[in-house]
Amino acid sequence: MASWFEAPLWKMRIYASLREEVDPSTDRHYFRQRSVGYTGDLSFWKTPSPEPELAPLLIERLSMPLAPDDSICLAASTLAARIKSYFDPQQTLFVAILRAGVPLAAWLRKMLPGAEAVATSLFVGLGIDQTALAAIRADYPDRKIVFVDGWTGKGGVANELRRLEAGPLAVLSDPWGQAEFRGTRDDIFSPSACFTGPTTLGFSRTFHSDDNKPFAAYRFPDELLQASFVESWLASCPETREDTLQDKSEFRIKHESPLRLHSNEVCRALINSNPETLLFAESDSIVRAKYEFLLALAEAQKVPQRFNVSELDELNAQVACTLRLSC
């Protein structure tokens, strides 16, 4: 059995095993309920999360390229320069963590000529897909692996990689300083957080089924793909700049919080979990200018919002959400 397949829009090897084709809007019994949360029970990873349909506004906006001075583009330029100062692109393999790492790895591959990029899975508690990782190392024996994710939240991916001594990890936005390489410590929202499996990948979130096989994924119908999302993202790829942004001062959270924190993590909760209320540190008018995509997702799902939430300052967070989970 092949250890990988190619994501058609990204032209990137995905180290996972493909299962039968299902339709996420009708074959809902293949997916877990949005209200089911991870509690430490590893059986949670045996079923993929659901896939929402995107509102017309989001489809229109995600099809538009980013401006060259967009904060995401500037952070990516800084990140690429930092990686280049440590690793020769000709000897580097970016291993994207499915799914948020794929868009960033595609940029880094383009920004650092000679680098290669593939993708595989990592689950908190299970760690990296070890069968897939062994295949990646066998296929690219002379490459230095740099893991790539879109951003960090509370550090689930970063902590798993540290536990396995498998790093380093590179991300765009790293508010709490969890990754070895980052574009910025500012919590900047990335439109790629809105990308879903049906619209950009053609397959579901992966799930664990057999310790001796790569993690699996269901195929999605090709007609669900929105090629314009990926085309616009790739067209927005910035150049690598030698000048880098300065990191914020060191910050570590003072206490645990039940909230889902930071804008991209909140977006993912709107994609595949069950938010109860969105919380913003800033005023209504500022939030509507900065977080258009989050509000569009929230309003489509009738999730209420609160503004000027001062408690978020203690968490070094601008955006958070509470979750309505059954377990």
From TrEMBL:
<dbReference type="InterPro" id="IPR011215">
    <property type="entry name" value="StiP_N"/>
</dbReference>
<dbReference type="InterPro" id="IPR000836">
    <property type="entry name" value="PRTase_dom"/>
</dbReference>
<dbReference type="Pfam" id="PF11202">
    <property type="entry name" value="StiP"/>
</dbReference>
<dbReference type="InterPro" id="IPR029057">
    <property type="entry name" value="PRTase-like"/>
</dbReference>
<protein>
    <recommendedName>
        <fullName>Cysteine protease StiP N-terminal domain-containing protein</fullName>
    </recommendedName>
</protein>
<feature type="domain" description="Cysteine protease StiP N-terminal">
    <location>
        <begin position="71"/>
        <end position="212"/>
    </location>
</feature>
